[in-house]
Design brief:
Layout (H helix, E strand, L loop, with lengths): L10 H32 L7 E11 L3 H12 L4 E5 L13 E3 L4 H9 L4 H8 E7 L9 E6 L1 H14 L3 E5 L2 E7 L2 E7 L3 E10 L14 H8 L8 E3 L3 E2 L10 E10 L2 E12 L3 E3 L1 H6 L11 H5 L2 E6 L6 H4 L11 H4 L10 E4 L2 E2 L7 E3 L7 E2 L4 E2 L5 E3 L13 H21 L1
Parallel strand pairs: 1-2, 1-9, 2-6, 9-21
Antiparallel strand pairs: 3-5, 4-5, 7-8, 8-9, 10-18, 11-14, 11-17, 12-13, 12-15, 13-14, 15-16, 19-20
Helix pairs in contact: 2-11, 3-11, 4-5
Length: about 425
């Protein structure tokens, strides 16, 4: 260690060396921090890029739309690579994993006819099935199956791994490449460049991040010139204030959503009371109508909404006249809060909706007028396809959004077959 001649001896030398050591340690910490800031700002530009291969079709996202698109493209003879952030989240099912049902069962058969895998996976992994509408004519009979979530994911991942012409790769796509106005490939976060004739963006929206969604797809779509409508979480619970006293209570009823004094929508079903609001399928469907107006703050917009709960939907006003209390129709805990006078129209404020973590779907997304809905190809960038929840398409609880993912993915792959082969 350098020190100034014989000026320092003994304890002075020890002190000098310790001071010098601390100085260099602090300098190294500062340098590392500045390097981290530089890398975060520059992103993938810092990483050296390298050519990793050439494929016909790159599918970004291994959700339901991405898996069906990748399988269909590979089966039609296109060399395909399916990119996912997690190999454990391939074709992840939601918390209510059902396939088929009223108004959706025919779509399952349609996807089967198009060569999709979803129906076969449902047959292999269902826990129970039921034919709905048996009391009506055979034209409206509809099969619905409840699916084993982990088994469905394992089944679909296995099919992807065994499929000829298809490679499953864990990587984050950070950039889309274009040349002369057409898409030409993708770039991963580690700098790998995969040249592709066509690219399918199937990364989902922002809802349920635990299932693998990140919302990064909107940025990729915008980088290609696409615009998005306002996105917000739907199919989730509604916050109404402190309801701790009836937390966990369930009751059948009708929920009506008003904006000021105008009825927007109503749903009937089981209402679940939480510590700060209400939930249940009938409640979740109403969140599709709760939005913040452009130029107005969320708080101001929410003040215009309120709910009215009919907790005795099977009783008329006349039948309630001779009753002394709501107990007997309602549970004891609920009857202590909701009086007989309020049982048909219990008013609750709308303080907000549960966030992205508990939402089952994303409202809003890529504008549909920028996409050819017959082929799912971008009208802005040829060779670029957008499918699944990233689009501005959403439906109620019950599998409508899953059906959209499956069908748009297959539709894109079919068009690729027509132009590549």
């Amino acid at each position: 260690m350098f020190f100034p001649g014989d000026a320092l001896q003994g304890q002075g030398l020890v002190w000098y060396n310790e001071l010098l050591y601390r100085f260099f340690r602090l300098l190294m910490v500062w340098f590392c921090r500045q390097l981290c800031v530089f890398v975060m700002k520059k992103g993938s530009d810092v990483i050296l890029r390298y050519e990793a291969g050439t494929i016909d079709v790159a599918v970004i996202g291994a959700g339901h739309a991405g898996v069906e698109a990748a399988l269909a493209a590979a089966r039609l003879g296109c060399s395909t690579m399916l990119f996912t952030l997690s190999l454990d989240a391939v074709a992840n099912m939601p918390c209510n994993p059902s396939i088929g049902g009223t108004a959706k069962g025919h779509l399952v058969r349609e996807i089967d006819a198009l060569g999709g895998e979803m129906g076969k996976a449902a047959d292999a992994t269902f826990l129970q099935s039921r034919m709905l509408n048996r009391g009506k004519g055979p034209a409206v009979h509809s099969l619905r199956a409840q699916i084993d979530r982990p088994a469905y994911t394992q089944y679909m991942k296995h099919k992807v791994e065994l499929q000829e012409n298809l490679t499953l790769k864990q990587a984050e796509i950070v950039e889309l490449l274009t040349e002369n106005g057409e898409v030409t490939g993708v770039v991963t976060a580690l700098g790998a460049v995969f040249r592709a004739k066509k690219v399918i963006l199937a990364v989902g929206g922002k809802a349920a991040p635990a299932l693998g969604t990140t919302g990064d797809g909107y940025g990729l779509a915008r980088s290609m010139g696409h615009e998005t409508t306002t996105i917000y979480p739907i199919l989730t619970g509604i916050e109404c204030g402190d309801l701790q006293k009836i937390k966990g209570v369930r009751a059948r009823g009708t929920v009506r959503l008003f904006i000021e004094d105008r009825l927007l929508a109503e749903e009937t079903g089981e209402i679940q009371f939480t510590e700060d609001g209400i939930s249940g399928i009938c409640v979740m469907n109403l969140t599709m109508h709760i939005t913040a107006e452009k130029g107005v703050s969320v708080r101001e917009s929410l003040q215009r909404y309120h709910l009215e709960l009919d907790l005795a939907p099977d009783f008329s006003e006349k039948e309630l006249l001779h009753r002394k209390s709501s107990f007997g129709i309602l549970s004891y805990a609920l009857s202590q809060i909701v009086s007989l006078e309020d049982i048909k129209a219990w008013r609750l404020p709308v303080r907000g909706v549960k966030g992205w973590k508990s939402a089952q779907c994303t409202a809003g997304g890529i504008r549909l007028d920028e996409i050819d809905m017959q082929t799912m190809e971008s009208r802005i960038v040829p060779g670029f396809y957008l499918v699944g929840e990233i689009l501005d398409v959403q439906g109620k609880c019950g599998g409508f959004n899953l059906q959209n993912a499956w069908e748009t993915g297959i539709r894109a792959a079919q068009h690729l077959n027509e132009i590549l082969l």
